[in-house]
Each structure stands twice: as structure tokens, then as C-alpha cells.
Amino acid sequence: MLQQFRHLDQEILFEIKKVVFELQLSKRPFLPKNLMYQIYKFLQLRECATCSQVCKFWMICYNDIYFSYSFFREFETSRFNEKELATVLKRSSKQLKHIKKVRDIIKGQKISSFLEKTELRTMLSDNSQQQGSLLELFKLEPKKQYTSVFLTDKDLNSICKESYKSLQYIQLISCQFMTGKGFEVIGKCSQLSLINIQSNCNLKDQNVQVILEQVQELKTLMLLKCDGLTNQIFEIIGNYCKRLERLDIGCNPQLDLIKCSPLKRIESLQSLSIKENVVTNEALEIITTNLYKLHSLNLEGCQEMNGYSLLQIQKLNLQRINLKKIQFKEEGVILLIIQQRSTISFFLQRALSCCL
């Protein structure tokens, strides 16, 4: 029923007023504020403003949502227009710590420009008012490809300092203004389950090592388009990510996947993505020999792949594989494989058909 509040018009508003009037006549109590907050959570801010016209009590509840951790638990800048976001940053940041963090990040930029170029999302932890337990999720990324977002080392340090006990998911996409020192503060958040860092040439092997030495519960690690990484990253990940289930290290063609054998130490590893990397037959053989427990393998757009590579993949007991955008160089080998379809697993037949 709450979903019906999403698209308010004058007729619905009239019905709401009618119900409230009947409650007043019967001298029945109004809905508790907490329940009112739950209703408002299903609405956009402009719709909440419409609801506030129903009666004085609803207006009071509307004014109070600006100071409600419950209403702003999941905060996404994309939900607001320029005027709404300006109002939220002005009113809510006085009492809500995470809104103050958002205001500090946007400070110095035009709100209209920020909304046009950037997407920022946060989610409060259940114990958000306890020291070190502010955010559960922090995500910052550009809306358009090949653009950067503005986040300083100081901003990230402030976020991690307030959330070192609670932060579980952090995604930093195209934060080109950050340096290695800024990334190292991520290691203070020892409860992290997911780290996603993309499109940053300032991230080095030693920065990743400092993070992984302290984060023991990591399940997903994504390091894409990070040109500062070297082959040493495989040794670092193999040494410190004992509970890792998903690794995405694609779009790093400077890495030599022949050096990836240290990943075999991660017995929990189920998913590997190396898309748009150079994958030779020798590298693929090392992967299939050492990472035989993989359930998912992403080879989209990988270079140097050929028919022999497909035969190597059969060694794995895969449930999912991605072979899109692969250009096979040896047409004769492809024809040979097509003739021997009975020896190729069903998912590889489909993938090969798509490639052709």
C-alpha cells in the first residue's frame, strides 16, 4: 500500500486529508512518527513536501525527516535535483554526520555540476551513532566515462576515520586526485568485505599491500585500470587474501598473467575476471592448472586467445564463462574445434558460436 504514495496527485492528497479528518473526529491517535518516516521513505523529497500539506502533524514529521537517520540511511545524490540537494546539505548536515561528509566532499563545487558529472551513494550502519561506526557503504563514481571525480586524501581519511568499525563496501571509481597515502587509510576499516578501485594510476602495489595486511574479511577485490600495479600484485593478493571469493583484475594489460600462480593459495577463490588483458596459452594453462576450483571466468576482450585456449578452459569445472569480444587468429583451429563439438562442453559451444 505504501507504494501508492510514489505518484501523488490532487485526488490522492484529498483522500489522505479525508482519512486524517476522520481520525480527528473519532479522536483516534495519529500514526507514530516512526511509521510516518517509513511512509516518507517511499517518496521523493518533493512528494514528501506535498504530503506535508495534509495537516500540521504531517508537516511536523516532514520537517523532522531532515534530522532523521532513518530517512537518510540510504543516501544517493541522484535522487535529488539541485534545489533539493542544496536544502538537504544545508539543513541535515547540522545533525547528520554522513550528510556533513557529503557536504564537505561537494564543498567548492557547483551542485548542478556535481549532479551532472558525479554519482555519490552512502549507507549508514545499524550503529551509526557509535564512534567509528558511521557508514556501511561508500560509493563514488563519474556518470560519464573518461571523466574524473574530485575526492581528496583528506576526504577519504575523514570517511574512514568515522567508519573504521562499520565500513563493509567501498567503491572509488576515477578518483584521480587521490594519492597512495589516501588509499592506505582504507586499511583502517578492518571489516571491509568489498573493495572496488578503478581507473587510478596512483595506486601502487605497496598501497594495496598496506590495505590487505589489515583487512582480513575481504570477499571481493576489484582493481581495474590501475596502471601503477605490477606483477608483484599477484604475490600480495595470494599472501593476504585468504578468504577472497571474487577477484577482478581486468583492464590491466601491463600485468603478465604467467605470474598469477600465487593466487592458488586462495582456496576460497570462485570467480576471476581478467577481461581485456593479454592472455597467452601459457598464462591460461597456469590459470587452469592452479585455479582449478574456479566457478566463473571472465575473458571478455582478451588478446592472444586461440582454439587451443578454449581446449585449456575445458579443464575447469566452470558454471559461467564470458568469451565476448575475442578475435581468434587461427581460423583453421576454429574449424577443427567446430568439427569436434562432441568433445567441447555445452557452454563453450555456445560461446564459440557467439564469437563466430
From TrEMBL:
Matches recorded under Pfam families: F-box-like
InterPro entries for this protein: F-box-like_dom_sf, F-box_dom, LRR_dom_sf
Residues annotated as domain F-box: 31-67
Domain of life: Eukaryota
Protein name: F-box domain-containing protein
Source organism: Paramecium tetraurelia
